[in-house]
Design goal:
Blueprint: H1 2-5, E1 25-34, E2 42-50, E3 53-58, E4 66-69, E5 76-78, E6 81-83, H2 91-105, E7 120-130, E8 133-142, E9 145-150, E10 159-162, E11 168-174, E12 177-184, E13 194-198, H3 201-212, H4 224-232, H5 238-248, H6 294-305, H7 321-328, H8 333-339, H9 354-363, H10 412-423, H11 426-439, H12 446-451, H13 473-486, H14 532-546, E14 551-558, E15 567-572, E16 578-583, E17 591-595, E18 612-618, E19 621-626, E20 630-638, E21 647-656, E22 661-666, E23 672-677, E24 681-686, E25 691-697, E26 703-708, E27 714-719, E28 723-728, E29 734-739, E30 744-749, E31 753-758, E32 763-767, E33 772-777, E34 784-789, E35 795-800, E36 804-810
Antiparallel strand pairs: 1-2, 2-3, 3-4, 5-6, 7-8, 7-13, 8-9, 9-10, 11-12, 12-13, 14-36, 15-16, 16-17, 18-19, 19-20, 20-21, 22-23, 23-24, 24-25, 26-27, 27-28, 28-29, 30-31, 31-32, 32-33, 34-35, 35-36
């Protein structure tokens, strides 16, 4: 862990870890420790003035550091400056007043600017947060740099971060209050460059939004839903996704009470070989650690039922400073000593063996801890005692040294590699959403948490107590101490079930998924199916979308008379020769069928009480959406072989809605229908039973268009609110929202990219994973209102308010 491991180890032994909770180091002076009248007994060193104590650090490294609390020290005279500390009255209030007074009397030293031409934007008092430590000072932000200057000049006179190097910034909840800001100059590292705690939220927010303007993607603030879409579609690994969720949930490696949480994913630490094709090798991710052992859970539930309110099932948390340092003691011994008053834990309670630790998490009466990111990283130093620390001797006589690894790991590096492979395995990919529901999602709180046996002490939850309402300073610090030492539950990111990841279509796991989709179309394809042709088609589609920016106009046709209204929908029928169009005509509600070579009208179908907004077609069934609040299902069959013969259409069903239906679309297999209404609601229907599967109110206004992804996992919708929404079909969750600069009226998409028709008349090629427009193609002189794409994604037809139909092809 970089923030703990790489702190400079200099000859000076003083560390901020010597201070108590909410104690601050102010200044230092050269001094002598005089133990007698003899000059030989005068020991030179550094005298530190802190808010709760004084510390003498001798130059002679064989001499101990002396710390004296103000509670037993009334005054002291020291060399070069005489100071008399009177007897303390209200010590805590005095400390806070002293700190604020020192901060107010000082300001950022602008001589520290790297460039004389730098323009300061803002300066305020803050504290820099590192594990178990807060260091007060001033932050100053300019048009080039972010600076932090510690009040005490420790460990550096000034810390500088170039704003053009910043890649990510996060608002943080610190000590249960929205005062933190964390800045990263890397994309994927979970250790930040600086963590600042402000004294008011307004200052924090102003600096946050100022830094955001320097980020390349500052227009798009990443959300849990946007990362979810990338993870679902395989663009983020399980490891990367969990890091992002931890970041969004206020977990930071600078705050040990909110350290990033990762799950135990394996249950086998005894076999000589690790069999990842056997589901029994893996931990049940649908249950918290405390519920994995039924006998222990029964005892905990019996106690829970007899407990007065507020009740909790587990007396300890799955993440706390003690648990983090339990794992990291070999690389951060000074932090463990700070937390445990200068002593290591008993040797038999140390992190001795991975297998023993897992067993204790299953069987221990009070041990329910999860893992930390280091177990899935590349640095194995936390598993080895490279500093030769004296960590004690166990009852069996053995010394505590390196961590004992499972038999299936040849060394620490091999263990991490196999552990990471397990995290990215098919089984974990199929079940990780269940663990996310427990830690970050809808099973974290309330009745769902009770049903999932996932209830912890009330003090661990955000909003469980308002520390600012505690007037007595000492009582408030005592409460904060209890909360910070006990651990905190992450900020809740999801309030509905988390969607499952989209995994490959092969099955080699012997235990079936616990998620049973209500939609048969979402089930994986059988391995025995010959999919060579399908794979070839998929590759052709991928190639087409990779070259979609090369879309070229082939021809255009004016298809309505000047007095008629614009097209609402167009599509090509199965014969490959006929284009069907519907119009907004408000006198006659029609579908015009055009023969592409001849351009004649073949049939007119009247069947709604208001404008027909969109059509979709599968096999012999035609679905027509209308502003009369219905989608009608027709069975259409030709009465002759000629394409010029009249079709016969019979009404099969009417799907009722609350408001006018503006769009409708079918899944590739035709088993699902999506409809979008004027009130901003999306409805998903089963086309065999015509029953509603999901209804999601996701737009603030009319939905212009909605369509399934090729794998039927997601629906993309665009609306009058300028938003593009991605919805998970299985759960109904909105997993991505993109705010565009103009209304997107229609589109075709492949699950990752979308070709949209804009209000301006242009075609816009969107990368939905990065929420950016990668290409703008001039097309119509009015809004693009309809779009169709062939199965190989190589031909596109668009219709617009300019009454033009334009044919497009991909050019190599």
């Amino acid at each position: 862990m970089a923030s703990l491991k790489t702190q400079e180890r200099t000859k000076e032994r003083f560390s901020l870890l010597l201070l108590d909770l909410e104690e601050y180091y102010f200044e230092q002076h050269i001094a002598y420790n005089v133990t007698s009248s003899s000059k030989k007994e005068r020991k030179r060193g550094s005298f530190k003035v802190c808010s709760r104590s004084i510390i003498f650090d001798p130059e002679d490294l064989t001499e101990p550091i002396i710390k004296v609390s103000f509670s037993v020290c009334f005054y002291l005279c020291y060399l070069h400056r005489a100071s008399c500390l009177e007897k303390l009255g209200d010590q805590t209030a005095m400390i806070e007043a002293n700190l604020q007074s020192r901060l107010a009397r000082s300001s950022f030293d602008k001589n520290c600017f790297q460039n004389v031409a730098e323009k300061p934007h803002m300066e305020c008092e803050v504290e820099m947060v590192t594990p178990l430590v807060s260091n007060p000072g001033h932050v100053c932000i300019t048009d080039e740099n972010l600076y932090f200057q510690p009040l005490n000049g420790y460990p550096k006179h000034v810390i500088q971060i170039k704003l053009n190097r910043v890649r990510r910034i996060y608002k943080r909840r610190h000590c249960l209050r929205p005062l933190g800001l964390e800045v990263f100059c890397t994309e994927n590292d979970f250790c930040s460059d600086i963590y600042l705690k402000f004294y008011n939220t307004a200052d924090r927010d102003e600096i946050y939004y100022y830094i955001a303007t320097f980020l390349e993607n500052h227009m798009t603030e990443h959300t849990a839903e946007s990362y979810m879409l990338q993870w679902q579609r395989g663009h983020l690994s399980n490891y990367q996704y969990l890091l992002h969720l931890n970041n969004l949930a206020d977990r930071s490696c600078n705050d040990l009470s909110q350290y990033p949480i990762f799950p135990w994913v394996l249950a086998d630490y005894t076999s000589a070989q690790l069999d990842m094709t056997n589901a029994a090798t893996f931990r049940d991710l649908s249950k918290p650690v405390g519920a994995l052992n039924k006998e222990r859970l029964d005892r905990l539930l019996a106690r829970y039922r007899g407990m007065p309110e507020p009740r909790f099932m587990y007396g300890s948390h799955y993440s706390s400073p003690g648990y983090v340092l339990f794992y990291l003691v070999r690389v951060a011994p000074e932090h463990m000593l700070c937390l445990q008053n200068g002593r290591y834990d008993h040797a038999d309670r140390m992190f001795n063996s991975i297998g023993e630790t897992w067993k204790n998490c299953l069987e221990g009466a009070t041990d329910f801890k999860e893992l930390i990111p280091e177990f899935y990283g590349n640095d194995f130093s936390f598993l080895e005692n490279k500093m030769s620390l004296d960590l004690g001797r166990r009852q069996n006589g053995s010394l505590v040294c390196d961590v004992v690894l499972p038999p299936w790991a040849s060394d620490a590096s091999d263990f991490l590699q196999r552990h990471r492979t397990a995290l990215e395995s098919q089984y974990v990919s199929e079940h990780l959403h269940e663990w996310i529901d427990l830690v970050f999602g809808f099973k974290q709180r309330g009745s769902e948490a009770v049903a999932a046996h996932n209830v912890f002490h009330p003090l661990t939850y955000e909003g469980g107590i308002d520390c600012d309402s505690i007037e007595d300073p000492d009582e408030r610090i005592a409460m904060l101490t209890q909360i910070l030492e006990f651990g905190q539950t992450p900020t809740q990111l999801f309030c509905t079930p988390h969607p499952q990841r989209i995994t490959p279509r092969f099955h080699n796991i012997t235990r079936s998924s616990s998620i049973n989709s209500p939609v048969s179309e979402l089930s994986p394809v059988s391995q025995s199916e010959d999919s060579s042709f399908e794979d070839l088609t998929d590759e052709s589609r991928k190639l087409a979308w990779a070259n979609m920016s090369n879309l070229t106009r082939v021809s255009s046709h004016k298809i309505h008379k000047d007095y008629n209204r614009a097209l609402s929908s167009c599509l090509m029928l199965a014969d490959g020769k006929t284009v069907a169009c519907s119009s907004w005509d408000n006198n006659v509600y029609v579908h015009y069928f055009y023969s592409v070579p001849y351009g004649r009208r073949q049939d007119t179908l009247m069947g709604h009480d208001d404008a027909v907004s969109e059509m979709c077609w599968f096999d012999d069934r035609l679905y027509t959406a209308s502003w009369d609040s219905t989608v009608k299902v027709w069975q259409c069959a030709s009465d002759g072989s000629s394409s010029h013969k009249r079709s016969q259409c019979q009404l099969l069903a009417e799907l009722e809605h609350d408001t006018g239906v503006n769009t409708a679309g079918l899944s590739p297999a035709g088993t699902l229908l999506v409809s979008g209404c004027k009130d901003g609601a999306i409805t998903i229907w089963d086309t065999s039973s015509y029953e509603t599967l999901q209804q999601v109110h996701c737009h603030a206004g009319t939905i212009h268009h909605a369509a399934f992804s090729p794998d039927s996992r997601h629906i993309l919708s665009v609306g009058a609110d300028f938003c593009m929404k991605v919805i998970d079909v299985q759960t109904g969750m909105v997993i991505s929202t993109v705010k565009a600069e103009e209304e997107q009226r229609c589109f075709c998409w492949d699950g990752n990219s979308a070709l949209c028709g804009g209000q301006s008349g242009d075609l816009l090629l969107w990368d939905l994973l990065s929420s950016t427009v990668t290409k703008r193609i001039p097309a119509h002189s009015g809004a693009v209102t309809a779009m169709w794409m062939n199965d190989l994604c190589s031909t596109v037809i668009t219709g617009g308010e300019d009454r033009q139909m334009i044919f497009w092809n991909l050019q190599s």
